[in-house]
């Protein structure tokens, strides 16, 4: 490969992967998972109307998707009370984070996030040569004041804040987030990742204000709308910042059926409400199972429950491994002290019945493995 | 926007769009096209088996797609006689060109292509600050020797060559392309865009040789397989170059249903053969319609026919406009001297019947408009 003239940034990068997907793990194991509760997918699935819309769009897939995502954007604009010029549709929040990093990050650019927050954000920042400034969580919450301080200190053009948070499931109230927005210096763009917002209490998100030039909010059809495999996310922000995405995005990159599905999903708010209720029930059930096994579930405003296993990271890792051996896919935080925990996505009753049966064995096996 | 600290490259970029999509033009006109023959989409559509596979995948869209695209890659590897490590799946060739440019282009990097070749390639190169070195076409063909000379002269790390070519529909024989590969200096990566290859005569593509470290071939399910809206393309090359995509790609960026659809499409080679025959018939019909109207169709190895209108670019533009007024969507080359032509995608008999009826009127109206 030596003769190939990769850019210096590319040469410096590891061939890293933010996450190993469950299909890869299944192939390595030689058998499928019985419960898929590791990627914060929405096991309750999309609205039947969204499924139908995607199926109806399949014969028309010979057409490129609308590069402006006009219909979806128009519906979202009405839903959110913003203009279409305040919305950018992308291939999931991942795709939008990639573009956002590209707009603001060049080699050596400092970018602030929380230590152990979403790895794919770091992956994109590093991918453009940026340098991650990681601020510790504070009592299992992202730490708004410390994040702001660090962004100010290193003059970061980009600050990532996820509310509700992944992987801890914790959240800040809207007034705290509004305080961040009000305190932000104008040279820092706040990327407010609200992927899990629909699962959170009412008072979690401050009002959308697209007059702020340096706040961009990311939302998705992957979580509450149950369409992770469709790859539809959206960014909300000032028209100037949103418009800049047009300089770098793949204009014809959106799957046509996915756009139709997202529109139908958005229009089925009754189904969304039922999903949210289902997820709330699943969270309670996971918490109950954890407690029954002597573990401590943390409060969650997401579609997963993070569970404090009460010991160090080695034990948490062993629990993840032991559940994996029982064909139950979960994940865990990867930075101390959060890595004392495991993270289990909301599942259907049948998924959680499998969890309930497996967890005592897994805990036993994890303890055995460590002795 | 002034306070936002976009990178210098981003600040230098226009808010440009490689193409305006037909939906945008339809909304501007206030009515739909009667024939959609401008974007080289495959109006004959995908295999019914691919449609069924996408429809069957819709209820499972709550799962992220397999980040390794294992099933599709394995099938493609067998089909092409290469290893899975020689294949990268991406969101269309557009998405793969974006990643390839990112791997090799930084501000000031010279990149060689043909003047008037695929604009989306230039868009991505410019998007990373690269400088396009454009080599003129030679008698409506891309000019292999001149491209190689220029790449050598400017020490380009990346050279783009599309065979068969878009927008002219012309092509070079396999031995000419093999000559390019053999002559290439090791410091230049040849990006061989073969989006239209399935429509070309047998002897158009040299054998795939993944031992070449600096040749990458791009193919797609958008054209012959009729799945432009699904966004599935693939790159074939040396494992080291292919592997480098893992440093920058969106690992979970592929639509799950699209992967299933592409696999089913690949497995229905009988349908592909019928599509190729349908397209060949449509090309003949377009050529006949052109000739009947005193225009000169150029030979084509693609799913479109480029037609020499026999006058300058103003007339060609007026013809495109006049057909647009009659609700027939076509496009045209945008660099002289190719911009004396219009470009019409292969359509079904009913699409071409509309073209046949409209073209005399359009030519008349175009001449009127210019007097």
Find the CATH superfamily of the largest domain in chain A. Answer: Type I PLP-dependent aspartate aminotransferase-like (Major domain)
Report the average pLDDT across residues of chain A. Answer: 97
Annotation field: number of helices of chain A: 13
Distance separating the two termini of chain A:
45 Å
The structure class of chain A reads: alpha/beta
Succession of helices and strands of chain A: HHEHHEHEHEHEHEEEHHHEEHEEH
- At the fold tier of CATH, the topology name of the largest domain in chain A is Aspartate Aminotransferase, domain 2
The amount of helix of chain A comes to: 40-55%
Assign the CATH class of the largest domain in chain A: Alpha Beta
**Radius of gyration of chain A, CA atoms, in whole angstroms:** 21 Å
Tell me about this structure.
The structure is a homodimer of 371-residue chains. Chain A contains 13 helices and 12 strands. Chain A has helices at 8-12, 22-29, 48-57, 70-80, 92-104, 119-127, 144-154, 174-183, 239-244, 256-266, 269-292, 313-325, 349-370, and strands at 35-36, 87-90, 110-114, 131-135, 158-162, 189-193, 215-220, 233-237, 296-297, 304-308, 328-329, 341-345. In chain A, the strands form 3 sheets. Chain A has a 7-stranded mixed β-sheet with strand order 2-8-7-6-5-3-4, with helices on both faces. Chain A has a 3-stranded antiparallel β-sheet with strand order 9-10-12. In chain A, strands 1-11 form a two-stranded parallel sheet. In chain A, strand 9 (296-297) and strand 10 form a beta hairpin. In chain A, helix 12 (313-325) crosses helix 13. The first copy, chain A, is globular. The N and C termini of chain A lie far apart (45 Å). The model of chain A has no long low-confidence stretch (mean pLDDT 97). Chains A and B meet through helix 1, helix 2, helix 3, helix 5 and helix 9 of A and helix 1, helix 2, helix 3, helix 5 and helix 9 of B.
